[in-house]
């Protein structure tokens, strides 16, 4: 009886630890966009046949557009600001139509521009550069788009919160 009780206790502990422990293989940042769109941005989207431009948690820009996107839209650069001070510029200079396909549903297509490596270089490999152990909402991104037909440059501003996940084991408590 004691052996069965000890075996069940050990099994329960292993099961509980397995459910409450997660290994994170590398340090990484999580972006959480506030997804608010101003009227000016809506007009830009409409004039460029874009449905939206979103930030993903994996530090990517997602361009959602209707099937009739022309090849005349260029993603020039992205500027990252912290507390209204510029902390980095990512130069891209690619046509949106040449970016990696993300998904396609009905008449809406999504293209993805991954910024993870450049973002990590700017923000640092650990959180100490901007002390962001807790969500920090003082970050903003300005996306520069260029219409190649008219040479007009559009600026789209995105505010976001930033989380940092540290490499190692993470413990959490299950709740019902």
Overall description:
It is a single chain. By secondary structure, the protein is of the alpha+beta class. It has one domain: Immunoglobulin-like. Helices cover 20% and strands 49% of the residues. The chain contains three helices and eleven strands; from the N terminus they run H-E-E-H-E-E-E-E-E-E-H-E-E-E. It has helices at 2-20, 39-47, 116-123, and strands at 21-24, 28-33, 50-55, 60-66, 73-82, 85-95, 100-105, 108-114, 136-147, 152-165, 168-171. The strands form three sheets. The protein has a five-stranded antiparallel sheet, covered by helices on one side. The protein has a four-stranded antiparallel sheet with strand order 3-4-8-7. It has a two-stranded antiparallel ribbon with strand order 1-11. The radius of gyration is 22 Å and the shape is elongated. The two termini are 31 Å apart. The model has no long low-confidence stretch (mean pLDDT 83).
* CATH architectural arrangement: Sandwich
Spatial strand order of the main sheet:
2-10-9-5-6
CATH class: Mainly Beta
The helix-strand sequence is HEEHEEEEEEHEEE
The assembly state of the depicted protein chains is single chain
DSSP strand content? over 45%
Alpha-carbon distance between the termini?
Answer: 31 Å
Number of strands: 11
Q: What is the fold named in CATH at topology level?
A: Immunoglobulin-like
Morphology = elongated
Low-confidence stretches: none
The biggest sheet amounts to: 5 strands, antiparallel
Q: What does the radius of gyration come to?
A: 22 Å
């Amino acid at each position: 009886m004691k052996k069965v009780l000890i075996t069940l206790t050990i099994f329960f502990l292993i099961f509980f630890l397995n459910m409450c422990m997660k290994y994170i293989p590398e340090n990484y940042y999580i972006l959480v966009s506030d997804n608010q769109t101003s009227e000016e941005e809506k007009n830009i989207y409409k004039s460029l046949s874009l449905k939206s431009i979103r930030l993903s948690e994996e530090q990517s820009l997602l361009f959602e557009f209707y099937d009739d996107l022309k090849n005349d839209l260029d993603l020039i650069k992205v500027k990252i600001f912290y507390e209204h001070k510029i902390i980095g510029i990512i130069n891209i200079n690619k046509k949106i139509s040449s970016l990696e396909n993300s998904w396609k549903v009905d008449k809406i297509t999504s293209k993805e521009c991954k910024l993870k490596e450049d973002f990590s270089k700017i923000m640092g490999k650990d959180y100490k550069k901007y002390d962001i152990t807790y969500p920090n909402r003082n970050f903003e991104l300005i996306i520069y788009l260029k219409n190649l037909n008219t040479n007009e440059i559009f600026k789209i501003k995105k505010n976001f919160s930033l989380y940092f996940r540290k490499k190692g084991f993470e413990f959490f408590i299950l709740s019902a």
